[in-house]
Each structure stands twice: as structure tokens, then as C-alpha cells.
Amino acid sequence: MTRPRPSPFAVSVSLLILVAGVATSGGSGRAARDCSACAFAQAAAPQFERELTGGGTHTYGLTLAAGQFVRAVLDQRGVDVEVSLLDPEGRELLRVNNPSGSWGVDSIFYEAERGGKYVIVVNPAASSAPPGRYEFDIEIGDAATTHPRRLNAERSLARASRATPG
Is 55 in contact with 26 (CB distance < 8 Å)? Predict the structure, then answer.
């Protein structure tokens, strides 16, 4: 299945990639709560593939202005992941883990009401998960310049994802 590439209005994404194996404890998003040491570096491409194993955490920082949205899609390839979005204070805004297991797509969509540095955290759903890969595709856009039908569809999908147990 071919996913459409980000539209021309997509902006560069600031990403921080912390190497798998960051020491973790507690619930999802745990490694990114203290992001004071995070260096937000510019990513050249909004799509890439990474390997993740049980106990590992990948953290991606991004800067959003008020009125911007982020759409992140993780295509699981042998590892069941849980994806969280944290606000600039480190509070979890949303968490997604679709019941598709270690193959299939988990995605998040969020519209920022205020600007700041947000964090996407990717953890394996099981701490003992064997190595697997995922493809990460991210887009940041401006809600004011996005076609209304697309924006409404994204909003509806995001609400349905949050309402679905998984």
C-alpha cells in the first residue's frame, strides 16, 4: 500500500531521536517527561524506518505553533508499538495502540491550541518484545491552509481512534 506523500504545505519537522534502549520505568511516555536535555534537531526527511526491541524507547521532539497539526503514522513491521503524544509540560495528551498487533498502522493526529515543543514517544507494547521495525511518517501542517474536508476527516478519524478500546 502506498501512502500519499506530505502535501506542499507540510513544513520541516524538528525531530529528536533518542537511541533505542533508553532506560525506562513506569507507564508510556516515561522517558520523555523530562525533555529539558532534549536537543531538537532538523530532520531532512519526514519518513524513515527504525528498529525497536522490548525495553527500548524512541522519542521524537517537534515544535508546533498554535493552529498547526501533526499527523504521525507508524507502520508496524514485526513489533507492536504504543504511541504517545506529550505536551510541552510532559503531560500525555493521547496514546494509541491499535489492536492490529505487530503488523499494521498506528497513527495520531493532534491540533495544537498553543505553541511549544511536543514529544512523540514510541514504546513496544510489551517490554519483552522481540526486535522488529516500524516506518515512521510525519507531517506538520497549518489548519488554516488545509482543505476543510481533509481536516474534518482527520479530526473524525482521531476522535474515533480515541473512542476505540485497544
Answer: no
Tell me the average pLDDT across 6-28: 34
For residue 161, what pLDDT is reported? 64
Please give the backbone phi and psi of residue 142, each rounded to the nearest 5 degrees, phi first.
-100, 120
Over residues 67-79, the mean pLDDT reads 92
| pTM score over 0.85 | no
Q: Give the burial class of 15: count Cβ atoms within 10 A of its Cβ; 0-12 exposed, 13-18 middle, 19 or more buried.
A: buried
C-alpha closest to that of 52 among 81, 32, 26, 31? 81
DSSP E strands in 2-154: the ranges are: 14-15, 41-42, 47-52, 58-64, 68-77, 81-86, 92-96, 103-111, 116-124, 132-142
- Predicted pLDDT of residue 32: 42
| Cell output for 74 | 507508524
